Amino acid sequence: MELRKQAIGIDISKDTFTACLASQPEHGEIQLSPVEVFINTKSGFNRLLRWAKPMVDTMVPLVFLMESTGVYYQNLAHHLHGVGKTVHVVLPNKSSHYGKSLNIKTKTDATDARVLARFGVERDHRAWEPPSPLLAELRNLTRYYVQLQEQKTTINNMVHSKQAAHNVQAFILASNKQLVRQIDRQIERCKQQIEKLIASDSLLSDRVDQLASIKGVGRLTVAVILAETRMFEGICNTRQLASYAGYDVTERESGTSVKGKTRISKKGNRYIRNALYFPAMVACRFNPDLKEFYGRVIRNKPSKMIGQVAVQRKLLLLMYSLHKNGTRYQEGYNKVAPTPKAEATLDSIA
Questions:
Q1: d(Cα 46, Cα 289) in Å, to the nearest integer?
Q2: β-pairing, 249-250 with 86-90?
Q3: Which residues contact 115 (CB under 8 A, 6 or more apart)?
Q4: Could you count the other beta carbons within 10 Å of the beta carbon of residue 334?
Q5: What's the CA dihedral at 303, 308, 314, 319 to 10 degrees?
Q6: Could you give the CA distance from residue 318 to residue 312 in angstroms, rounded to a whole number?
């Protein structure tokens, strides 16, 4: 039996992962191996390779496919990539929709591993590549910064509720305020570490300065965008970037009875949307180009939030454009008159 493709589907969790090998012949149905459970440690990773070795045809391409389940997949993905294996990491919603297309109603680790194995041989996926150590460190720091800010918001809400409550002990009020001060100190230290890391690499430093030339966008925002997009690695066009960040538009209409609102999908990187929220508010007021754009968008619209989201998307795509072209932001870029050469070209075409 000649095989066309092989894939090992891996359903991973905190302590263990479940694997299944799928083999797709040139003619006939996909063959699935028995399912095996491994410990989510380095010894388990090596045992996975030993388990697969006698079943795999070395003359046929083999891929390992897993979901991006929190952070639990990362060690295995790095290990497999380090020993020269082809790794695919897919979003859980994509594999879930694929499983529904097979009309599979059971939800177990073994079933998920079989579905992922079939997904690996039936569909084409982009090979996973680990981020560079520099960008991995930057992403860790910027995400930690966001987490600290979220913790601060939670504690501040607690402070407000205790202050408004009746007869709350002074110890509780003082303790909450002390927690806020401690988080503030950690936030400041985190910002210093981000700046130190940016300064350690000339290319990264230049890119941050370049994209921070946009009026309304700060260095920390740029650091988040570059870290989450791996400096726009693998981004081919603006539609792909908008979808990755969850700014792609979804519609819900059917016949005459269903007239849903048009919304952004939000099925993308939340850290990018979080980082662009406040810069968009600033740009709407103080960036002349984006202020004009914001005014056009909200005209005759029921909510100003539509304009805010549009400016967030505009900022992201503008940063991508500047990065791609290697240029700094030029105020009034959309009003620049064409050069004589461009005018002559247009005239000759006409």
A1: 56
A2: unpaired
A3: 9, 95, 98, 99, 102, 104
A4: 8
A5: -170
A6: 10
Q: What does DSSP say about strands 62-67 and 249-250: parallel, antiparallel, or unpaired?
A: unpaired
Listed in sequence order, the residues at least 6 apart from 306 whose beta carbon sits closer than 8 Å to its beta carbon are 297, 298
Q: Which two tokens stand for residue 178?
A: 């002390």
Tell me the sheet residues that pair with 246: none
CA nearest 6: which of 18, 20, 50, 17?
20
- The full set of domain ranges for the chain reads 3-122, 133-200, 202-340
Helices 202-211 and 305-325, packing angle to 10 deg: 140
Question: How far apart are alpha carbons 221 and 247 in whole angstroms?
Answer: 17
Task: Name residue, tokens 């009020």.
Answer: 173
Q: Is there a contact between 283 and 215 (Cβ–Cβ < 8 Å)?
A: yes
Instruction: Provide the residue type at 195 as one letter.
Output: E
pTM of structure: 0.85
Read off the tokens for 331. 């105020």
Architecture of domain 3-122 in CATH? 2-Layer Sandwich (3.30)
Pairing state between β 3-12 and 16-25: antiparallel
3-state secondary structure of 64: strand
Tens of pLDDT, residue by residue, the chain (350 residues): 578 899 999 999 999 999 999 999 988 899 999 999 999 999 999 999 999 999 999 999 999 999 998 899 999 999 999 999 999 999 898 999 999 999 988 899 999 999 999 999 999 999 999 999 999 999 999 999 999 999 999 999 999 999 999 999 999 999 999 999 999 999 999 999 999 999 999 999 999 999 999 999 999 999 999 999 999 998 999 999 999 999 998 887 777 777 777 888 888 899 999 999 999 999 999 999 999 999 999 998 888 999 999 999 999 999 999 999 999 999 887 665 555 554 444 443 33
Which amino acid would we find at residue 305?
M
- Ramachandran quadrant class, 104 (left: phi over 0; alpha: psi -120 to 50; beta: rest): beta
Helix H or strand E encompassing 182: helix 170-199
